[in-house]
Write a structure and sequence with these properties.
This protein is an alpha/beta fold. About 35% of the residues lie in helices and about 25% in strands. Helix 7 links the parallel strand 7 (about 140-145) and strand 8 (about 165-170).
């Protein structure tokens, strides 16, 4: 399992992932990036309200956030934003990249799994899919990926912050 200390969240204004970010903020340094600066400011304030001593920084660009992080989370708009994905490609080498799926992105990006692997050939791609149907309960996630080491790392992080995970290694 990899020692993760800093997590870049690219597409941080996606409020559907707020419960995950809230739990991560209590244990990890977060670097937030989003094109919508007003929304990412609101997310940062919300996280700091819940986690008074958290280290949460808004980053001016996705590349800088990804460069400084041990792990990268792609969320919301950026999952299908070719520009954002290509800008972080150079600094994502050997890093775990978590693709946070929600219902509407899942159907769009399921066809991109191969392209994520091709875009980031030297990174470890893990798709994290919220499998709950109840909007109030975001406690179960399916993790899919090729790299068992990365799957173990992401599963440990999610279970360590109180979520249940189901791991599927794709060969």
């Amino acid at each position: 399992m990899q020692n993760i200390k800093t997590i870049a969240v690219i597409g941080a204004s996606d409020k559907r992932n707020l419960s995950v970010l809230n739990e991560l903020a209590a244990r990890y340094q977060l670097l937030l990036f989003d094109k919508n600066i007003n929304e990412v400011n609101k997310i940062q304030q919300s996280l700091l309200t819940e986690n008074r001593y958290a280290s949460i920084e808004i980053m001016p660009c996705a590349t800088n956030a990804s460069w400084e992080a041990d792990m990268i989370i792609l969320s919301g708009f950026c999952i299908n934003d070719d520009t954002v994905v290509k800008t972080i490609k150079e600094v994502a080498t050997a890093k775990i990249i978590v693709i946070m799926e929600n219902d509407d992105e899942f159907t769009k990006s399921i066809n991109h799994q191969v392209s994520f692997d091709l875009l980031f050939p030297h990174s470890k791609i893990i798709e994290v899919i919220n499998i709950n149907t109840d909007d109030q309960a975001e406690k179960e996630f399916l993790l899919e990926g090729h790299d068992s080491y990365a799957l173990d790392t992401v599963s440990s992080i999610f279970e360590g912050i109180g979520f249940n995970t189901y791991v599927s290694q794709i060969n």
